[in-house]
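Example record

The entry below shows one chain as it appears in the dataset: sequence first, then structure tokens.
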Amino acid sequence: MTSSGRHHIIKNRIHYSFSWKGAADLITLGLDIGSAASKALLLRDGAEILAHAVFPGGAGTQGLEKARAEALRLSGLTAAEVNYTVSTGYGRNRVEVD
């Protein structure tokens, strides 16, 4: 599957735009790290929701890792298959990506 659409990432209010023209699907992991809960969402080509997870515990807890791991488990994907990671919320600057 190829995609020639435009995809956008907003991080710290700076707008980045890029085109995806690959042979495989574009997989994006969205993380929302709040003060009380952490949420993870996996998207295919910016439109199809593959999995989502919500765990209590926000920034500075294991909630983020639990949400990320659960979303990956539910989708059947591995971390290596994720093309982009986008974070938002109170703990957005705590996200470490390989």
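Notes for this example: Residues 1-18 have pLDDT under 50 and may be disordered. The helical segments are 63-75.
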